[in-house]
Amino acid sequence: MDRRTFLKIIGSGIASAATGNLLTPGRTLAKEGPSAKELYGILVDTTRCIGCRRCEKACAEVNGLPIPDISEKANESVLKTMRKTSPTQYTITNLYKTEKGSFYVPRRCMHCNQPGCVAACLVKAMRKRPLGHVTWDLNCIGCRLCMISCPFDIPKFEYNKAIPRIQKCNLCFGRYNKGLVPGCVEVCPTEALMYGTRRNILEEGKRRIAQNPDKYIEHIYGEYEVGGTSHLYLSSVPFEQIGFRKDLGTVAYPEYSTGFLYAVPFIFVLWPIAMLGINRATKKSKEDEGHHEEKGKH
Amino acid sequence: MAGEKLETVDIVEEKAEGPSIKSFGNFIDFLKKELKPKGNIATPFNIISLPIMLLGYVFIVLRLAYGLGKPVTNLTQEFPWGLWIGFDVVTGVAFAGGGYVLCFIVYVLRAEKYHPIIRATVLNAFLAYLFYAGAIVLDIGRWWNIYNPMVGNSFGVNAVMFLVAWHFFLYMLAALIEFSPTIAEWLGMRRVRKILGALTLGAVIFGITLSTLHQSGLGALMMMAKSKIHPLWYTNFIPILYFVSSIFAGLSLTIFEGSISHKVFGPQIDEEHHKSYDDIVVGLARICALTMFGYFFLKAILLVHEHAVPYLDSTMGFWYLFEVIGFVLVPCFMFVSGAQQKNLSTIKFAAVLTIVGIILNRLNYTFIAYNWYVPLSERYWPAPMELVITASIILSEVWAFRWMVNRMPVLRKPPAWAIEKEH
Amino acid sequence: MNKKLIYLILGVVYLVIIIYGLNAVYNVEATLRPKEAPAVKPENKIAIAHTEIFGKLERPQVIFYHNKHSEALKQEGCKTCHPADEFDRLGFDFPKKVVKKDEKTVMNAYHDQCIDCHKKKSSENKKAGPVVCADCHKEKDKSIVVQYPIFEFNFEYHDKHVKKLKEKIGKDDCSLCHHTYDIEEEDEALALVYEKGTEESCYYCHELGKKRGPELTAITRVAAKKGLSIRKASHQQCLNCHLKYQEEYLKKGKKEACPTECSKCHTGKYKTVAELEKVPRPARDQKEKPFINIKDAKLKGVTFDHKYHETASKTCRSCHHETLKSCKECHDLTGKPEGNGINVARAYHDVFSEHSCEGCHNKKKSEKDCFGCHRNIPIMDIESVGSKKEACAICHSGEIKGPLSRPPLSVAKLDPEKVKKEVTVKVLEKEFEPSKFPHLKIIEKLVKISNDSKLANYFHKDIQTLCEGCHHRSPAAAEAKKDTPPNCRNCHSIAYDPEKLNKTRLLSAYHRQCLGCHEKMSLEKGRKCADCHKVKKGGPTEITHIKNENVVKQNKSRILQVWRPD
Question: What architecture is domain A40-114+172-242?
């Protein structure tokens, strides 16, 4: 080839690389993906929780939400009903009366290892940060698919606002960068909430079960459920009795849509080829063309 | 409807040369002329639909001002998707499936029998996507970020929704390209018309590929709601069920909408087309029947495969059987009998049944069999404003369709210069 | 037109079914909640359902009013309905004439027995029961559950029976109730024998379904074949005797009769161990204080106060789970089949068993008075104890007449300088006032509890043992030498240790130690925040102050939010 052709090729190559870079900088700049760092989580020991709701108050203070009233009187009436998290409450505590006694169970985002909400988000507004925090960001379009995909029904949408957001616990991602533990963990008086790397808190949970076989049932909720979560729960009674679903399976939720996603490239390539083939195969010979023109089809 | 009688002869002569649009100014004048209503304004249909549409537009402004909560919609934290996504988007797109199926039949399989209705169907598909997929903008909470899936550096490529969003956009373009020859004829642009005609096959093939993926993609959206959808409806093959049902949903709507169009726009349609129409409907009925039969068997096999047969003995089981037998099997047999006896009224009734069945099926996945174990007080019903806005969107689409059919060569023959060669 | 009408009707039908279906589907949740069966006072009623034969019932169960029948058939007597065996003992299996146990036979037998009698009575113009199906199989009785509380034949009842029967007969005759089954005997009729000195609990042979050793399994198999569950056997044995004496009493006009009605025995009232303490236990020449010594065992023998331990449980079976013989007869050093392979060390020391010494002692430690401290103290297992010989020596004294109690503890010898009367905790003071707690009072209370319990008194050899209940990681001996008190903060840091995030911090150390004890000992005071430390007037209202700034900005901001990159 001559110089001109060579330069043309090189030039177009550089141009396409540059445009590709401009259009998708995320891909070419090797942004930080999931690394081998530790995931952080919380071990929730429901036998230690005393239902004081200081975690709810701390969470509200730390995130600028309306501060709940956690006086004795208020707690008594609030704990009578089963609550769910809401756009203004990232964590709530419920009271369950069982044969073995009353248990208080704090519920919030489970920060799954492979979150359904993250897999569902088409603009990566829901992201799993390298250290395990599952956070929401402002480029969200408000499609609410994350709400449908969460097996624990955690993301909550601000329906009553013209500028709505998805609200949920983010494991105090902002505080982590300052070297602090989540607000709820800091104020818990009985250390029902224990913060640490998932590996460590899992070990701690297993140790507690092994050393106190009468006190705990032999299951850590979140160890394998939905592929593993970073919020691990210990309980004295079977988990159905304290408001946990046992039918969620151990398959990580994003796996449910991978079947379809894997089929996409095949259909994208094979369908056009097949249809073009059929179109060519059904083409009538030249002799019939004359007839068709006369008929005047449109 | 009755007042829109048009003289066949005049139109052919008038459009024989087409409007001479030499400049942008010409175009504006032409458009102004075209925007004037043709025929009687105070028809019963107009009188009923116009107030609803205007009320709907007012409500849309309210929705933008107040957000998605009450009183605009009844959406809750348990039921984040309601009538707008469940019906407008998901069902509306299923119904627009007639477009790609018919394109496949006419352009790929070259069954020229169905050629007369192809333009109306493609127009319907295009408008359906434009209005219903466009209605998504209304339903997503942060609509000003709507361009984020298209532009930017934060693409959630693992998300099924990402694929669906892109496909909606691309399919709108493909449908527009497929329909653009008609627009070119309307504007009298001959050279453009020729170029666009050459693009048709490519757009069709692209459109069918896209349709396959996003029709099944709408089903794949619900795959991660495994714990919330009743086991009778949830299977690993929801995308395939959605794809197959979109075929007969689209064709049923084509039959339904076709029969209304042929009454309303009757005068535009020439003798030959009228005569062949019955044949077309019978043919479509056969295709529907076959697909529905296959769909029914798929459902039966999946029921056994997922070990869901014991669930049939319950309230939800009754509802499931009602949907599958009453709205799939019964219309299937009605299509078969109607096609055999060439009885159009049976076929039309079956088409209506199928349409209702598809609506029920899609709504089941969205808020009826979704979170089905929740107490009555937490359940979702569409709010009045939601219904009005939905109605106004549908009526707006009908008005757009009517406007285009009355002015463009959709149902009537195209100008003589536009007759093209075998593609 | 005809066609149009058909389509219209069809359309309406579909619409109606849709509306009906949606209504049913939306109300599905109410059907998912399990219906609670209404609890009904037994009052001598019997529920005849026989679901073991019929499976799912076609008609509702029949509630049988026994009182009505026994009243009405006073003259005719019990044998009208109850089958009698060759010894003229009443049986309690119904219906009377049932050879095969299949649905039709049983149903017909009941109907023949009941309806025929009712018909007869009504033909004699007497008050009679129902003859129509629905009058017995009442719809409203469908989900009623008739359940009688289990009857406990405790030591008090046994003692009463022994005394009363001795009064009647003039001597002790245990054979009136007690028997054993001679498995070797070929003639079944002669197999039930009585041998003095082998009286045991009915439960050993008649508690079917429980896994037993090889010897007893053979016998329980026979009992199972004859259908002699504890229920059937005890009714047969007890009721027949009661009925016999009942007649006598009634003839003599005595009101106090042996109970023959269901609710008279099945009262649901049970005696506690404490209430039964003074009741004399059945005498079978058992040793009061046996010396348990295993030949060739590593440790010395144990003096065992059997007489005291008899009063510490409700039945002998708590320890003598298979037979009234001594443990080492089935459990030897190496383990044999009679003992299910469990060797003697494990038989006495298994901390999780209900029958071993350590197991029972361990359970006692979870009682209210003990659990406050003992919830934190790890269970002493043979493996964990290691070579701490002094722990073992508490029981294994090796003396035949070894010590069975220790001198009571006292606070008198405590140094008031070292052991403070009141302790103030103010190291974590922020939103609450410093907390003052009555240190000496708590010690005195614990001493009292320990002295009152024989078990505690035996194992708490000195007062320093009690200190370790709260001061759990500081050995008393070392503490005694120091000048500073054993502060919790010496080990429990206030701030988070990022390397050891699971180390209990001071805040939770205090709360779990104190609150845990109060909760486990079921104390009324000290459960609410204000009981221990009042809210500081003018103190901080926020409990944490460093915020998630971005999220706060989002939540507090009202301006339009725009998309921003990473």
Answer: 2-Layer Sandwich (3.30)
Query: Which residues in chain A (228-247) have CB-CB distances under 8 A to chain B?
Result: 245, 247
pLDDT at B256 over 80: yes
Judging contacts by C-beta atoms under 8 Å, the chain B residues touching residue A254 are 158, 224
Q: Between chains, do C22 and B316 touch, taking CB under 8 Å as contact?
A: no
Strand partners, C292: C302
- Tell if the CB–CB gap between B201 and A279 is shorter than 8 Å: yes
Cβ separation of A123 and B70 shorter than 8 Å?
A: no
For C355, other C-beta atoms within 10 Å of its C-beta total: 17
Contact A196 C564 (CB under 8 A): no
Q: What is residue C237's DSSP assignment?
A: I
Tell me: the pLDDT tens digits for B25-66? 777 877 787 777 777 778 888 889 999 999 999 999 999 888
DSSP structure class, residue C432: B
Task: Find out whether A134 and A128 touch, Cβ atoms under 8 Å.
Answer: yes
Read off the pLDDT of residues A112-169 as tens digits, 9 standing for 90 and up.
Answer: 999 999 999 999 999 999 889 999 998 999 999 999 999 999 999 998 888 889 999 9
Question: Is the separation of the CB atoms in C28 and C128 below 8 Å?
Answer: no
Phi-psi region of C266 (alpha: psi -120 to 50; beta: other; left: phi over 0): beta
Chain C residues lying within 8 Å of B326, measured CB to CB: 14, 17
Classified as helix, coil or strand, C136 is: helix
The residues near B336 (Cβ < 8 Å, ≥ 6 apart) are: B285, B286, B289
- Give the separation between CA A102 and CA A93, rounded to whole angstroms: 13
Least Cα separation, residue C70 to chain A (angstroms): 39
- Give the residue extent of every domain in chain A: 40-114+172-242
Contact B322 C27 (CB under 8 A): no
Q: Which residues in A lie closer than 8 A to residue B414 (C-beta atoms)? A: 298
- Between CA A132 and CA A128 the distance in angstroms is 6
**Phi and psi for B262 in degrees, rounded to 5?**
-65, -25
Residues of chain A with Cβ-Cβ distance to C547 below 8 Å are 61-64, 174-175
Cβ contact (<8 Å) for C565 and B154? yes
**CATH topology (fold) of B51-418:** Formate dehydrogenase/DMSO reductase fold (1.20.1630)
Determine, yes or no, domain membership for C37: no
C515 CB neighbours in chain A (<8 A) are 50, 189-190
- The answer to whether C558 and A70 are in contact (CB under 8 A) is no
Tell whether C433 and C500 lie within a shared domain: yes
What pTM did the predictor assign? 0.82
Tokens (6 digits) for A82: 């089963």
Name residue A97's beta-bridge partners: A102
**C563 close to B (CB below 8 A):** yes
Q: Identify the residue whose tokens are 């991978």.
A: A258
Lookup: tokens for B353: 């049944």
Report which DSSP code applies to B89: I
How close is the nearest chain C Cα to the Cα of A1, in Å? 45
**What CATH number did the domain enclosing C507 receive?**
3.90.10.10
Look at residues C377, C393, C409 and tell me which one is the last residue of a structural domain: C393
**Whole-angstrom distance between the N-terminal and C-terminal Cα of chain B?**
36
- Indicate whether C107 belongs to any domain: yes
Are B375 and C30 in contact (CB < 8 Å)? yes
Question: For residue C19, how far is the Cα from the chain centroid?
Answer: 52
CA distance A251 to chain C (A): 26
AA letter at B132? Y
Contact (CB, 8 A) for A228 and A112: yes
Instruction: In whole angstroms, give the CA distance from residue A184 to residue C544.
Output: 9
Cα–Cα separations (whole angstroms), residue C535 to A55, B58, C428, C538, C545: 18, 54, 13, 9, 18
DSSP state of B377: G
Q: Is the Cβ pair B376, C31 closer than 8 Å?
A: no
Interface membership of B377 toward A (CB under 8 Å): no
